[in-house]
Design goal:
Elements: H1 9-27, H2 30-37, H3 41-48, H4 51-75, H5 80-97, H6 105-111, H7 118-145, H8 154-171, H9 178-190
Helix pairs in contact: 1-2, 1-4, 4-5, 4-7, 5-7, 5-9, 6-7, 7-8, 8-9
Length: 193
C-alpha cells in the first residue's frame, strides 16, 4: 500500500522552522522534529526525504515569508530613507515580541556557515547579497530624489547597513534590548545623511 500524506506540507514545514530556529540545524534531532511537527518518523522521511532536505525547505520558506516579503513591502515605499528607517524599526519591534530570543533563522544559519552544506551556504550568501542589493537600490533611489546625498558611497553604505542588520539580529538574541538596538538604526541613517 503506497504512503499517503495526511498533513499539510507547508504547515509541517512551518512547525519545522520553529524547531530549527530555536535549536539550530545541528542540535535539532529527528525526535525533536517528529514531536514538534506532530507527525511520525516515517511520514517525515516520506514527505521530506531527510532532515537536511527538510531544513533546506524550511530555510527557503522562512526566507520567502519573512525577508523577501518584508523587503518587497519596504521597497514599494516612495521615500527610501523612511523605508530604511522602517526596516530597522520593524526588526527592533520584532525583537520585543520575540520572547524566545531566537533572532533570525537566516542569520543564525549564517553564523554556522562553515558547517553548512554547499546548497545552504549558497542560499545564505544569495539572501545576504539580495539584502545588500535592496539597500543599494534604495540609496540610488534616494540620491535620484535628492533625499540622500549624491556623494554617498553606495557600495560602502549598503554593505555597512547589511552589517548593522546582521549585528542587530545577533545582538537581539538577548544581549541588547530594543532601546540599545535603536543605536544601530541611528548609525544606519547617518550613513545616508
Amino acid at each position: 500500500m503506497p504512503w499517503e500524506k495526511t498533513f499539510d506540507l507547508d504547515e509541517a514545514t512551518d512547525k519545522a522552522i520553529s524547531i530549527f530556529w530555536q535549536k539550530g540545524y545541528e542540535a535539532t534531532s529527528i525526535s525533536d522534529l517528529v514531536e514538534g511537527m506532530e507527525i511520525n518518523k516515517g511520514s517525515l522521511y516520506n514527505a521530506f526525504g531527510s532532515k537536511k532536505a527538510l531544513f533546506d525547505r524550511a530555510l527557503l520558506r522562512y526566507d520567502q515569508k519573512n525577508r523577501q516579503k518584508f523587503l518587497r513591502e519596504l521597497e514599494a515605499m516612495d521615500d527610501p530613507v523612511l523605508a530604511i528607517a522602517a526596516l530597522f524599526d520593524g526588526l527592533i519591534a520584532e525583537t520585543g515580541s520575540n520572547v524566545e530570543n531566537s533572532g533570525c533563522l537566516l542569520v543564525n544559519t549564517a553564523l554556522e556557515y562553515p558547517n553548512q552544506s554547499a546548497d545552504v551556504q549558497n542560499m545564505v550568501t544569495g539572501a545576504l547579497h539580495e539584502f545588500e542589493g535592496f539597500f543599494k537600490r534604495l540609496i540610488l533611489k534616494g540620491q535620484k530624489q535628492g533625499s540622500i546625498p549624491a556623494d554617498t558611497d553606495v557600495d560602502a553604505a549598503s554593505k555597512s547597513m547589511l552589517a548593522l542588520v546582521v549585528g542587530l539580529r545577533v545582538l537581539a538574541r538577548g544581549t541588547y534590548d530594543a532601546k540599545a538596538l535603536a543605536a544601530l538604526k541611528t548609525g544606519a541613517l547617518k550613513l545616508i545623511s
